[in-house]
Write a structure and sequence with these properties.
Blueprint lengths: L3 H13 L2 H8 L3 H15 L4 E3 L4 E3 L1 H26 L6 E7 L1 H18 L3 E7 L2 H10 L4 E4 L9 E16 L19 E5 L4 H12 L8 E6 L2 H9 L4 E5 H8 L3 E4 L6 E10 L6 H11 L9
Parallel strand pairs: 3-4, 3-5, 7-8, 7-9
Antiparallel strand pairs: 1-2, 5-11, 6-9, 6-10, 6-11
């Protein structure tokens, strides 16, 4: 008979394509992971992975097994958590995906509130690039995702507005712009910018807002591209250049260390959404979390 635990080991191995990393994520030894995979391959009489000295790849049989395994593992979790919750308390494990800024600054107060009501629910957060977080939600690898974009092609994902995140231009405290009440869009040219990567939600919002005031982002001088807003804030603080980052980051990390600069006619914001996959059977813990989300005010207060 198939073992849901073995299928879960297979899923993590398929996600990481590395038995050692899979063992670390599962809290198991690498030989134990290998043994579970070998047992599955003997059960199905077919290899699930192509093994080489450098990496693993799924075979056609392994690819076919992926969605079936997710369904069985999800159903197994649903059964366990439902039976445990019959005792009068909500048990379970939530997997939450998110992009960088929401993961660092929005999830902690959100999950603290939820934990205060449902102390026996365990939560794992996976911080990743925004598109990857949405892919994981659509593919059933996480139960919920906090993101600043909605992908219309994800028909089985329901999103709820969570809060509005303003993005502001910051400069070093000794920058000439700090002596002015505001600057014009023409002043942006000639400055050296520290930018987020182009697939980030921040870059997407900045690019769209600048276009509305006639500024092409590609015409600005990009000194450096950095993978998170904290790195931009710290680099601006050191006088390396200017940059656009979330106001949340300025408040939490850079208040009094960098100067916010107002650009005439420019207002940049992005909506932050939280979504869940409606195509998969929800556990008691997942239903409790979504009901909790539905009861939150908009915008969600950070304090």
């Amino acid at each position: 008979m198939l073992d849901a635990h073995q299928l879960n080991v297979f899923l993590v191995a398929a996600e990481t394509l590395n038995f050692t990393r899979a063992a670390q994520k599962l809290g198991m030894s690498q030989p134990s992971v290998s043994q579970h995979i070998q047992n599955l391959e003997r059960f199905f009489c077919t290899p699930l992975f192509v093994r080489s000295t450098r990496n693993l790849q799924l075979t056609d049989a392994g690819i076919a097994l992926l969605p079936l395994s997710r369904k069985m593992v999800s159903q197994s979790i649903l059964i366990e958590e439902t039976m445990a919750s019959l005792q009068g308390e909500v048990f379970g494990h939530l997997m939450v995906g998110c992009s960088t800024t929401p993961g660092k600054y929005l999830l902690p107060p959100l999950l603290t509130q939820f934990h205060n009501e449902f102390a026996k629910v365990r939560i794992t957060c996976q911080v990743s690039p925004q598109n990857e977080a949405i892919d994981k939600l659509s593919g059933g690898l996480v139960n919920f995702a906090l993101t600043s974009q909605i992908r219309e092609s994800c028909k089985d994902v329901e999103f709820r507005e969570f809060m509005r995140d303003e993005i502001i231009l910051i400069a070093p405290l000794n920058h000439p712009w700090t002596q002015r009440e505001s600057i014009d869009s023409d002043d942006l040219f000639g400055e050296e910018f520290l930018m987020r990567e182009q697939d980030s939600g921040t870059y997407f919002s900045v690019n769209a807002a600048l276009a509305q005031i006639g500024v092409d982002t590609s015409d600005l001088t990009t000194l450096m591209t950095l993978g998170n807003s904290e790195a931009i804030a710290l680099s601006v603080q050191e006088g390396l250049g200017v940059g656009f980052i979330s106001e949340i980051v300025v408040t939490k990390l850079g208040e009094g260390r960098v100067a916010p600069i107002r650009v005439n006619g420019l207002y940049i914001y992005r909506e932050i959404y939280i979504g869940h996959n409606t195509n998969q059977p929800a556990t008691v813990a997942q239903n409790s979390f979504w009901e909790f989300i539905q009861g939150l005010p908009y915008p969600f207060p950070l304090t």
